[in-house]
Amino acid sequence: MSRARLRAAGLVAPLAVFVGVTFAVPVVLMLVRSVYDPTVADVMPETLARLEEWDGRGAPGEPVYAAAAAELMRAADERTLGQVASRINRVQSGLRSVLVRTPRLLRETPAGARREALLDIDPDWGDPATWHAIRTAGDALTARHYLHAVDLDRATDGTIGRRPEEERVYLRLFARTFGVGLTVTALCLLLGYPIAYLIAHASPGNARWLLALVLVPFWTSLLVRTTSWIVLLQTQGVVNDLLVALGLVADGGRLALVHNMTGTLVAMTHILLPFMVLPLYSVMRGIPSRQMAAAASLGATFAQAFRRVYWPQTVSGVGAGSLLVFILALGYYITPALVGGQSGQLISNFIAYHMQTSLNWGLAGALGGILLAAVAALYLVYDRAVGIENMRLG
Amino acid sequence: MTLSPLGSRLARGAYLAVCGLVFVFLLAPLLAIVPLSFNAEPYFTFTEGMLRLDAEAFSLRWYREVAGDPVWRRALANSLLIGSAATVLATGLGTLAAMGLASRAMPGRRLAMGLLISPMVVPLVISAAGMFFFYSALGLAQTHLGLILAHAALGTPFVVITVTATLSAFDRNLSRAAAGMGAGPWLTFRRVELPIIAPGVVSGALFAFAASFDEVVVVLFMAGEAQRTIPRQMWAGVREQISPAILAVATFLIAFAVALLWTVEWLRGRVRAAR
Questions:
Q1: Given A24, A33, A191, which is nearest B118 (Cβ)?
Q2: CB within 8 Å of A206: residues ≥ 6 apart
Q3: What ipTM was assigned to the predicted interfaces of this complex?
């Protein structure tokens, strides 16, 4: 390697290592969690080994019961029982309490056949479905979470089918997230194009001030902007007060503008609008205003001149801005969480929910994996078309 | 023009009205927050007194409440500590990397750029979730150090992008001339290259600081009570006990944003002047 190559690589290396350790590895490990979960396999290896010999029909033999009893009691001592129980419960709900209760009650039963003891504790121990659930949860390498993330499920006989109607949540959620992304992108284009045109063709003095009006919200904290939309849009808020004062809305019939999908759309459009205006502005600034005048003097109407002369030259800016807004919208979390209510939640909100509340980390990883794949694919397109280095940051 | 002068003037008026409405939409949230933060009553809307511009309807009570509240003061201290430490780390590592990336000799340039930009690309919830697991296993969750490292990682892409952009306009002959006169690489960097790219480095640092100062998702996942930052406290304010005190904080943050914007624009002028 030449000296120059070595020097360049040496300059990049410290940051590459830093980003690798503090960021990339954590994200990759989180995605690995969605296909690899050794919780049950680590705690119940003997039980799982014994279950290999089970034919899957009827209750298994005494060796399986003995191994399960011993390993559950050890798990209770080592305080891993809770995790194991939740993991198995996710395969078959209702088993959590059985699993948590069993070691405690086992301690009170005299030594002897474990099969009878377990069956005494709960009849579920005689149900083949319980053992199927343990065996499924014991599979450390699993596609289950990805199946779940697209509303599919693997039955005990291995066939893959759709989940029951009331459990089909995530395809609809992905569709909603894409829908919100597209709507917000369209709204930003609709609102951003006219003002980008105004700024691009204003006198330099005016352009500076108008641009500052776009940039101040851009630099303002996301939380401040989200909070202000709550203040403006809530039932007793400024917009509703104004509508009532103008007589457009009865005092009793105030509009629900926030904590629903409307809130999410309004706040996200507001926050993402500058990302649309800035690339449009840079493209439009390069178009001489004389061109439109020339088209008009040749007999074109405004609409013709715009469609045939102006618009084609802005398509690259429209593409760059739309792609950027759409990508950013797909990953939005804070704004929907605060102003979205029930109907305005997006995929990121469910990832956070499974991370923090349901503690279904595998599913969180699978949903995250799908979202990340979509975002990464769109970024590759963006990088090809615009170049990430050329992104204008404010 | 096929439009009559009157029609054309009407069309122009309508167009300007549309633009005006868009600007109102952009600024309304900020314009509403600032006066409401001076509300003497604990309401989130304009009282009749405020609309009549009664001096008594306005007060500084929410500012006093925030300034006297140890929770908010600790949040400010945390934000400043985490933000500035993360900025120093991100700026140092990011500037070095940008200098390497700007060199034509850099092997695997696209791949390296992809890795270094990734903290900006990956949706924050995914980054935060991954960091939470990893940092917990290392005992870094719920520590200031953990948040500093996380925010530094999230801030580096901004430094890399701004410094790379500044370096693309940098005249390499200056470095060669310095080397020709006997300066070593460090002396060349310190006396020739750094002063020229300094505005780009400083804007990158400001971006990194702003990113940390406004970041809440990683903080939500990783911070304990003792590491709560201003955005985290605002989140709690909106979610749990909504009080006009957060409007006072919001107004402070808007002023902060204007100051940042002004500085970055000024630096951008310096970069342009250096070309």
A1: A24
A2: none
A3: 0.88
